[in-house]
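Exercise 7. Predict the structure of Reverse transcriptase zinc-binding domain-containing protein from Fraxinus pennsylvanica.
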Amino acid sequence: MKVPSKVKIFAWRACKDGLPTALNLEKKHITRQRICSLCNAETEDLNHAVIYCKMIEGFWNNFFPELVKNKCRSIKEKALVFCEKKEFSKLDVFFMLIWSFWFRRNKYVHEQIRLDPRKIADKALGLLASFNSARKTNCVQIRKYFKWSPPDINFLKLNVDGATFKELDRVGIGVVLKHYSGKVIMAMSKIEISVEESEEIELLAIFRGMQLCVNLGIQNILIESDSKLVIEALQTDSMLNSSLGVLYREVKLLATHKIG
Ligand SMILES: [Zn+2]
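Solution. The predicted structure, encoded as tokens:
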């Protein structure tokens, strides 16, 4: 799985049903309450806590209807369905989401804070996008256009990447700024909606990354992206009159701002 290690550990515990759900705590005689605190209606096993509880069931139903219909008894069985179909990116999204819904459940159980499932899910997907962005290292560099000739020791590198979550009609943008030594200085992720083309996603990732650097007054950066199309378009100005022309112009403006 290509997810942060804390989510991998969570997934392992979830598959072993080793999380302290109300039902598990009752079985161990730690509490007498097996009913879910969020809905007060059903027994809280893990399946209920992260998928079938009211509020979040609607979320799953909209985006992964097959998952809700698939009446597997455990998270492990559900995960195996993705594995059997070799839908590994769906598996990553699945575990990111159940991890975020478990966090939401804990926030309510321990602090009585009720979080919006949609916001929580978007945060988790943003984290996944920025994780994947940081993981990629073999990127084509857009040196020609973005070269400001700083001395290496003062060089900061901005890796940008976009990830599409088709099932959720969402796009995640990840930005990681690193010191020349490889140390991460800053990482940011953002969820965008209504973005479809991969060119636009990549360009938007560059735009967001540059916007952030300009706002923070960070200079001497080298941007890396793995989209050859976008790199060439930025170097040659060939796309300024295309449907993405406005965004290309904005990126170039930010670059000029930095050079100046
Ligand atoms: Zn519930």
